[in-house]
Amino acid sequence: MNETAIIELKNISVTFGDNQVLNDLNLNIRDKEFITLLGPSGCGKTTTLRIIAGFIDPDEGEVIFDGKSVKHLPPHKRQVNTIFQRYALFPHLNVYENVAFGLRIRRIPEKQIKETVEEMLALVNLKGFNKRNINSLSGGQQQRVAIARALAVKPRVLLLDEPLGALDLKLRKDMQVELKNIQQRLGITFIYVTHDQEEALSMSDTVVVMDGGVIQQIGSPMDIYNEPKNAFVADFIGESNILDGNMLDDCLVRFSGARFECLDKGFAKNEAVDVVVRPEDVDVVPVGQGQLKGTVTSVTFKGVHYEIIVDIGGFKWMIQTTDFHAEGSNIGLYIEPDAIHIMKKSEYSGMFGDYSSFSDEFDELSDPDPDEEEEA
Amino acid sequence: MKRHSTSRFNVIASPYAVWAALFIIAPLIFVVYYSFTDASGAFTTENVSALSKYLPTFLRSIWFGIVATLICLVIAYPTAYLISQKTENIQRTMVLLVMLPMWMSFLIRTYSWMAILEDENGIINGFLASLGLPRVHMINTSFAVILGMVYNFLPYMIMPIYSVMAKLDRSMVEAAQDLGGSRLTVIRRCIIPMSMPGVVSGITMVFVPSVSTFYISQKLGGGAFDLIGDVIERQFQQSYNYNLGAALSLVLMVLILISMAVMNRFTGDEEGMAI
How far apart are CA A163 and CA B167, in angstroms? Predict the structure, then answer.
């Protein structure tokens, strides 16, 4: 893995005032991969990106690019380019000149500049926009210009700082596909920052989950979804019911007052653990069948499925089911062994995974505007 | 509906229309009227044709105006840039310091420069003499006149440039660096073009009063550097020749409009700016 690393972050620590933003961060980024830094506001993901770009000097640690430290290399000498959150296009230049900006600085012959700009504008589907004024473009079009401008100088690594944050949902989905296509076609490394877990899962080769300036987990999207390392990751990626449990034996766990077969082993006897059950992995069965029974306390129609909150012995579970179950009805629940994921206890234990105060509105409130992140 | 809102707009706008008519349009009409009439009110082109003997004064005014404007620009641009790079609190203090002299009367400021520049009792020469250095003749020179213009009008150059620069998006500068721009390249290709609207309004706000000023040249130039403003003032205050004064004003106005148009042609077109 080390042989193909294009960027290595070694023991990076950053403090703004008395706020520790990054704490001894280590990360290897492989050449040509699509890697996403994922985490809530203030987790240090944007700071990490700005360190790679050279806009922030870490207090400790160093960035290795292609085997060489770039500690004292200013941003304009690094082979990385950034897509900024608000695009940062030059309003005094038209689309063509924006894309040509980096090429002109490099004193490339005019003919070649024209070729490259046309090629880039075709790549981002903006053919014929050459003479257009930046301010006359929509958000999505500005975003494309920003991508063309960064790619025109042929970076080895493209840094993307929440590039789709300002776009509406439909456009965002289209751009996700398009960005992934561009990355694969050009075969360059993308380092992508987002707080949107769905975006991270659908685009990335590797996802780096961060919180509190510390990497919580690095893995493929499937790894971090199916095998979250701790309660924070389990909660942040998708929906999770997280319960206190005890490992009775290898492949046998007790939680919610019942025993369950599972696939996890290697824990101490009776070790206290966190148990993760995804809402879509619980089967609703008639009362009396299955291992658990509970009362439906709320039902939300989500289109593909119903999202129901079920009270099981005082703990509120979220369960996704395609069948309708009325509020107040009693149901039985069955969980297959491979639907249960066991995690070691961590500092996050007990903080997440109970849906007693759950509502969609609440979820949005607890996700403040990503724009305000880390700038203060 | 449409007509209704238009009539309401008219009602609300009427005080401004009256204001404009009374204090902008009417005076302009008077200027034109006086320019082409003699003391008895009869039509004449004599006033305008008499202007040729003031040509050197016009040229000197424009020349001094250009020099003062350029000096202001050279001083103001880096100053505005440096202020805009500071933290917000320091910015506020520095802007206050720039504005502070404008709170004092223009006359007092110009008198103070007389006291500073004078040969015998001047502060600078007094200081030089106390060091045993030879005195330097400064008052009543073109240097003193231009100094007075630069001193008085500098804030009008700093402020518009500063306010444009303070609003420049930091991330735009970062984007320029990111694309390979060194510090100098970023200033040349990014900061200067984006601050052009401020530069243009700064030039306008300094050049216009510099060309038409009358008091500075009398006090600091000692009458040796008659500017067109002085000539106009004399027509009204001493000769009571309102007609010639009006004709001079009219020509000055036209000259200023032409200079502005020329400047906008060179700097303005592609930036799409307003004065």
Answer: 23
